[in-house]
From TrEMBL, chains A, B:
Lineage, uppermost ranks: Bacteria, Bacillati, Cyanobacteriota, Cyanophyceae, Nostocales
InterPro entries the record matches: ACT-like_dom_sf (IPR045865), ACT_dom (IPR002912), Asp/hSer_DH_NAD-bd (IPR005106), HDH (IPR016204), HDH_cat (IPR001342), HDH_CS (IPR019811), NAD(P)-bd_dom_sf (IPR036291)
Gene3D superfamilies named among the record's database cross-references: 3.30.70.260, Dihydrodipicolinate Reductase, domain 2, NAD(P)-binding Rossmann-like Domain
GO MF entry, a single one: NADP binding
Organism field: Richelia intracellularis HH01
Example of a GO biological process term: methionine biosynthetic process
Annotated PANTHER family: HOMOSERINE DEHYDROGENASE
Residues engaged in binding NADP(+): L4, G5, L6, G7, T8, V9, G10, T11
Protein name listed in UniProt: Homoserine dehydrogenase
A Pfam family this chain is assigned to: ACT
Domain ACT: 351-425
Family membership: Belongs to the homoserine dehydrogenase family.
Amino acid sequence: MGILGLGTVGTGTVELLLDSTGRNPLLSEIEIYRVGVRELNKPRKVKLPDGVIINDLNAIVSDPQVDIIVELIGGVEPARSLVLRAIQFGKHIITANKALISRFGDEIFTAADQAGVYVMLEAAVGGGIPVIRPLKESLSINRINTVTAIINGTTNYILTQMQMGSGSFDDVLTDAQNLGYAEADPSADIDGLDAADKIAILASLAFNGRIRLEEVYYEGICKVSKIDIVYAEKLGFVIKLLAIAQQDKKDNLPAPLSVRVHPTLVPKEHPLASINGIYNAILVEGEPIGQVMFFGPGAGAGATASAVSSDILNMVAELKISAQTLNPILTWKLHKHNEITPIEELITRFYARILTRDEPSVVGKLGTCFGKYGVSLESVVQTGFQDKLAEIVVVTHDVREGDFRQALKEIESLDTIHSTPSIFRVL
Amino acid sequence: MGILGLGTVGTGTVELLLDSTGRNPLLSEIEIYRVGVRELNKPRKVKLPDGVIINDLNAIVSDPQVDIIVELIGGVEPARSLVLRAIQFGKHIITANKALISRFGDEIFTAADQAGVYVMLEAAVGGGIPVIRPLKESLSINRINTVTAIINGTTNYILTQMQMGSGSFDDVLTDAQNLGYAEADPSADIDGLDAADKIAILASLAFNGRIRLEEVYYEGICKVSKIDIVYAEKLGFVIKLLAIAQQDKKDNLPAPLSVRVHPTLVPKEHPLASINGIYNAILVEGEPIGQVMFFGPGAGAGATASAVSSDILNMVAELKISAQTLNPILTWKLHKHNEITPIEELITRFYARILTRDEPSVVGKLGTCFGKYGVSLESVVQTGFQDKLAEIVVVTHDVREGDFRQALKEIESLDTIHSTPSIFRVL
C-alpha cells in the first residue's frame, strides 16, 4: 500500500494500521510500503522504517510493488493527477477527498471503470459514519426517495452554540476556531460549499447517476441570526444547515432531482433536530425501508482514519477473493447524469422575517401581495414596534420558490416595508 | 434461490425481488427457483410460476439447482434442521431468524465454516436497519467498547406511549396489540427475551466470540409503572428497554463482557433517549470511531424484506467474484466463547422507589443502611404521605449490583419499609 499525505488524517490512519492488537487480523496482511509527503524533514508523530517516507509521490503511484493507493492529501491538485496516474498503473484507490470526487468523480470513475480498479471513499462523506457503504450494500435493494443530512460539523457546531445562547454568529465562530472546530479560513464550511460537495456525492450514489456540482444550489449560514433562532424555537423549529437530495415526482413518475444545501427550519420532533454540536447525521428514506438514519462524528483524525482503514480492510478482503473480478456492488457504474431541478422550481415552505414601518394595515398588505402569487400563510407573528419598526415573521404553506421570490420582491417594493433580513426554507 | 417460508417477511421479500424496476440491476441475475411452504392450498398475495411453490422443504435445501437458501420460517425447528441440511449440501444461507442464531449460531457457523458457505443475517437484528454489515465492514478496524441498543419495537412503543400519558402498561399493551405492534402472545417481547437474542448476536459480532444465551441477563418491562416514568422525567431521564453489551476493563485490560437487557433510566440528552415508538436504534462506541448510531424501523415486512434482499444482492455480488473463496470479512470465524460477567458484578447506578410507613427518620435509616454496603446516593426525592405511606425515590452513584441488592434486602427487612415496587438501572 502507498499512502499519499501524512497530515492529520494520514497520521491517524498510519497509527491505526500499526496498532493491530485486538483489531481485525486482516491487518497483518497489509504493508505500508510507501508514504508520500511534501516535506521530508518535518518531524512526524509516527515511526516508520527508513525509506518508507519519501517525497516523490509520482514514483509511489507507479511503483509496481504497490497495489493500493490511499489518497489523503486533500484538495484538487495534485490529488487529481496522482489518483488518475495511479489508476492508469492499475492501482486501487481509497480516498477521503470529497472535493476531488464531487468535482472530478466523472473522470476518476470512468478511468477506474476502464482500468478495472476499485475507488472507495467512505471517509469523503460524514467522517467516520458508515454511509457510502451502507447505501451501496445494505440498502442496495431500495429505491431511494430522499437523503437529508447534516454533513458539516463546523456549521452544526456554530448553530447549536447559537441555539444554546452562547453568542452571535461571529462570537461563536471565533470560539469554534479556537477549539479547532472551524478552520482559519472557514468559508468553505460556512458558505455551504463543503456540504454541497458531500451531498453531490451522496446524490450520485443514492440516485445512481452523476451530478454536476455547479447545478447544486448552496447557501451558507451567515444570515442566521440569534433572533431567527428564537423565532424558530417559538414556532417549534430548530435551524440546521441541511443538505438535501430528493427524487421529485411528477404524475407519480420520477422527475429531476432536487439537490441543495441551505439553512432550514427543522421541526423539533424530526430526527435531525436533535443532532447537535460537531455530530453529523444522514437520514435516508427509501422504499421499502422507510427512514433510516446514520449518526456519528463527521470529522476528526480518529473517526476519519476509521473510515479510511475500514475501506482498506474491505478492499483487501475483496482482493483476496480476486484481484481481477471486481465486486459489482462496490464499483461506480454511473453512466448517465442526473437531471437537477433549478431552485426556483423547488416546492417548499418558507420562513421570512420582515421589518415594517409603523403602519397598522401592513399585515393585510402582505397577505394580499402573497395571495397574488399563490403564497398562503401557515402562521404570522407580529411583534411590537421598536425604533419605529415592527417585525413580522411568516411561515408559508408549500409554495413554488420562484412564486415566493416574486411575491417577496413586490412586498419589498412597498413603501411600508423596511427590509427582509432573513428568508429560510422550512422542512 | 430457494426461499423457505411465505409469511409476512417471505411475501414482502418475494414482492420486492419481483418488482425490479428502478432497483439494482443485479436483481435480474436472481431466480426464485423454489419457495417452500407448509400449506400448499393457502391463498397467496404473490404470483409465482406453477411448480415454484412446493411443500417439500427438505427437497429445496438439497436441490442441486439451488445456490442460496433464504430461511424465513422463524422459530427454532424445523428452521435449524433445514439450515444445517442446506449447509451440508453446500448452500449459502440468508436468515432473518434471531432465535435460531442466538441459540444455535455455534452449530450453524461451525457447519458453514466447514462447508465454505456464507451465512448472512442482517434482518435478524434491527429489522431494516443496517447494523450487522456495518459492524463487520464499515467499523471493521475498530475495537468496540460498547453496544447500547433499543432493539425491540413492541416494548419501545409501549414505553413511549406510557411516557406520553396514553395509559397504564396494560392499556397500552392492548392498544399495541390492536395496532399490530404487539403479538397476541407478547411475552418474548415484553419479557426482554427477544432483545436478549438480538444483543447476544450483536455481542458475538462486536466482541468476536460466541455468546452463551443463557448467560445473558434479561428483565422485561412489566414492572415499569406510570409513576416511575413520572419520577424519571422529573429526575431528567426517560425509561427505555436497553440491550447492552459492554467490554469491561480491569487494570486497563479487557475483562469479561457485560451483556444484558433491562429497563433503564436514560438521561434525556442521550442519543437513545429520543428514539420513540416502534423505531429501533443501535449505538456503537469504539476506538477510534467514537460514537455512531444506526436508527430506523426495527420490524415490519418492508423493512425486513429490505435487509433480507440486500443480503441476497450482496451475496450474489460476492459469488459472482468467486463461488469458492469467501470474503473473509463476511464470514463468522468465532473460535472462542466470550466470557460474561454475572449480573451481581455489574457496576451501575440504580433507581429505586421505596414505600415507607409514617415515620420521620426513615430517610436517615435508609442512608445508614445503604452506607453500610458502600451505596452512596446521588439524589433522594420524598413525597408526602398517602394512606399512611410515603414514597421515597433514590438514585445511587455507581455501585456493584450485588452490594446494592444486599443493602436493599436489609432495607426491606426494616419495620418502617412497606415495599420496593421498582428497581431500575440507570445509564
